[in-house]
Amino acid sequence: MAYKDMEKMKVKRKEYYQKNKAKLKAEQKEYLKKFEVKTKKQKYQKEYRDRPENKAKRKEYYQRLEVKEKAKEYRLRIEVKAKIKKYRKEYSQRPEVKAKRKEYSQRPEVKAKIKAYQSRPRVKEKIKEYRKEYSQRPGIKIKMKAYYQKPEIKVKRKECYKKPEVKIKLNSYYRRRRREDSEFNAKEKVRTRFRLAMNQYVKIGKIMSLKKYGIDYHAIIKHLKPFPADQKLYHLDHIIPVASFKFENDDGTLNLKSIQKAFAPENHQWLKIKDNLSKGAKIEKQMIL
User: Fold this and answer.
1) Is the peptide bond between 241 and the residue preceding it cis, with omega within 30 degrees of 0?
2) 164 lies in some domain
């Protein structure tokens, strides 16, 4: 039978709740912890959220200016920022999330979209700056060096560079880079000139990096500045020709002092192609330091 006085019932319920508030809350908490209750609740919440009218309502609510401002203010709190960062890190490490992201990024339409986005000049510049800054971090430098020294990685890279499509891509990249970046072009000339000299005048050829031979190519580049407007018209010349130096001792060991002298910054100059070809391996008196 229905309660006759509804108002009286409401008052009585309120009084009972206020009197047993702690007890009722504890009971409710325990009840909601039950697996079947949690599952039922989650199922209902999902169904409720997925209803078109609720989706539209929620979208309209979050588009309100005051709600956006409030949400922005909330996210800027230090403790909230830390909490979000921690959650994102944990979330991204989940195997199912990793698998989902990998599958998503492999879709042709997504690949095309990412490529189009990264091709924007502003984005390209931003990525370039970030990669440069990231690779200069002490911990990352050590990590990268250790990674590329692994035998399996060396083999993998070697195989990769042998592929025709990779060769074409790299050649295209280096041509464009040499054309657009005069400093890079000068560095490439120094490296190439050194490699050719070592292969020509040393039996074993070039087997180490320039640094291990005691060559500071950064100092050479600094000495060669300012670069000619059109480097195509110039050769990178050795004032005292490389042929004048003895790179090997009589016992077959490397003569590092002679190599370092030949590739000293002050022994480099820009010389027009015509003048350099006529000079050859001669030492001009007015050019000797």
Assistant:
1) no
2) no
Question: Which residues form the domain of 225?
Answer: 182-287
Q: Give a yes or no: residue 261 inside a domain.
A: yes
Nearest to 230 by CA among 173, 287, 176, 178: 178
Rounded to whole angstroms, how far apart are CA atoms 21 and 279?
101
Is residue 74 one of the residues assigned to a domain? no
Is residue 112 predicted with pLDDT exceeding 90?
yes
What are the pLDDT digits (tens) for 42-81? 999 999 999 999 999 999 999 999 999 999 999 999 999 9
- What tokens were used for 75? 């996210």
Ramachandran category for residue 252: left, alpha or beta (phi over 0 → left; psi -120 to 50 → alpha): left
Residue 205: which region, alpha, beta or left (left: phi > 0; alpha: psi -120 to 50)? left
Closest Cα partner for 224 from 273, 276, 187, 179?
187
Could you read off the pLDDT of 207-235 as tens digits, one per residue? 888 888 999 989 999 999 999 888 889 99
- Asked if residue 140 is part of any domain, the answer here is no
Q: How many domains does the chain have?
A: 1
Q: What secondary structure does DSSP assign to 56-71, as a single string?
A: HHHHHHHTSHHHHHHH
**Stretch (H or E) spanning 236:** strand 234-238
- How far is it, in rounded angstroms, from Cα 165 to Cα 221? 32
CB 247 within 8 A of CB 258: yes
How far, in Å, are 71, 111, 208, 217 from residue 193 at the CA level?
A: 60, 40, 15, 11
User: How confident is residue 2, by pLDDT bands cut at 50, 70 and 90?
Assistant: low
What is the DSSP code (8-state) at residue 12?
Answer: H
